[in-house]
């Protein structure tokens, strides 16, 4: 035992920054924020234990319920749209056409730039009353609305912004498609399979691990959208809470109302929700994700 | 048959090119609009400017009194630069330990590290703020940089562990026989061979730090310490939407560094995304 770990100190030496960070900035704060979620805490005064009150308040808090609805609506639209767009374009680009590098760059640029404040500001303009969309509509004689300032449409402009950034998922799909051996398609053709059959029997099963991975990452990222909703709604989540994303409300509660216990409780519910959702996806994955080593395992 | 194939190829090119142009149109329109007089921004959806002006770049640059966007750019470069160096060093150290060294609890810590990859940052948000507040670090760059010095971006550790595992162990072993210790092996063998993964780490650290609006807004309040994203936010705070030209001008400038990084390191970015599923 001792001999096996001779010189173990050198491992810890290399791990020192990570260990301090893990205990000091991740694990410690996680446990502390769990404690804070049962308290009333305003940063300047010591936390006061209030039991489950934060969680009880949450389910009567109109704004909290709105923020959950907004975030779930967003995820349910943005994640499928983005993945479908990414897959469709990846399939088109995978047909061995020339100039694939240039196309890939064109499609990737929105993903590269999309997370910035600059693009969020651009979106606010494009979907504004005098914005690009309405200018184009006016060209066809249609009078547009102020999309970002209308409670029925504001969230959908953000869904479009997110879908627009399908390029990074597309790059992952393209890499996945390249891994599929072409002999499989040739063999299927010999057997008289049509395009439809080739897609559902070869492409989709072999791409399902990549799809599964993309799905989980997109859900986790979409649940935490912040910059675009903050910029487009000028930090309010408006109009009428229509873009009040979960993380935006959490930020407002914690850092402009200074209800930091409440904000911690919100963060823990988000973590628990994501953990359960990821767990369910992993459990169902054996029915639809195909792994080459060991077939459907 | 051949003719049929040719027309269908043409057709695919047309679709792919059409959607592609539609995709980047907003960005190009913003670039062109930043040179248009204000009234044309609100009336001209085309990308051929009828009149050109540099006025917006001048107005945007001096958005607030006593400060310029030049300062915001300098601040952003300092933060992103230190973050890149810190991440490359500390993440590669941790990755080397996980991939090559033996010590008690290695598997436990490795599992902990993997779990933090998917952890939503909000769970640590309030305690971190309160720690930094009690250390009197609010309104300094320390809350943005110290987490990078402590290797908290687990994703990069994971990426580097995968890469280092692919480096043949024979190299380490022959170096050990020649009398090299783990520190020498890390410096002379692992780091040089892991350069592609280190570049991927550096590029994405740069892009994410450059774009990181949330933490910068949370921790910085003095305008002199503002970064580029915070400078851009000043437009919605102070002037409403009265001057979209200036907003576009500074937005365009803010995207230049990331775009340049992309064109210089395109290969690493595309490979990084394709092999690890990193969010670009």
Automatic annotation (TrEMBL), chain A:
It comes from Insulibacter thermoxylanivorax. It is found in: Cell membrane. The keyword DNA-binding does not apply. Belongs to the binding-protein-dependent transport system permease family. Keywords: Cell membrane, Membrane, Transmembrane, Transmembrane helix, Transport. GO terms for cellular component: plasma membrane. This is ABC transporter permease. One of its GO terms (biological process) is transmembrane transport.
UniProtKB/TrEMBL annotation, chain B:
Gene3D superfamilies: MetI-like. Residues 73-265 form the ABC transmembrane type-1 domain. SUPFAM superfamilies: MetI-like (SSF161098). The chain crosses the membrane at residues 12-32, 77-99, 108-125, 145-164, 185-210, 244-265. GO terms for cellular component: plasma membrane. It is a multi-pass membrane protein. Keywords: Cell membrane, Membrane, Transmembrane, Transmembrane helix, Transport. PANTHER family: ABC TRANSPORTER PERMEASE PROTEIN MG189-RELATED-RELATED (PTHR43744), ABC TRANSPORTER PERMEASE PROTEIN YESQ-RELATED (PTHR43744:SF6). This is ABC transporter permease. The lineage of its organism: Bacteria, Bacillati, Bacillota, Bacilli, Bacillales.
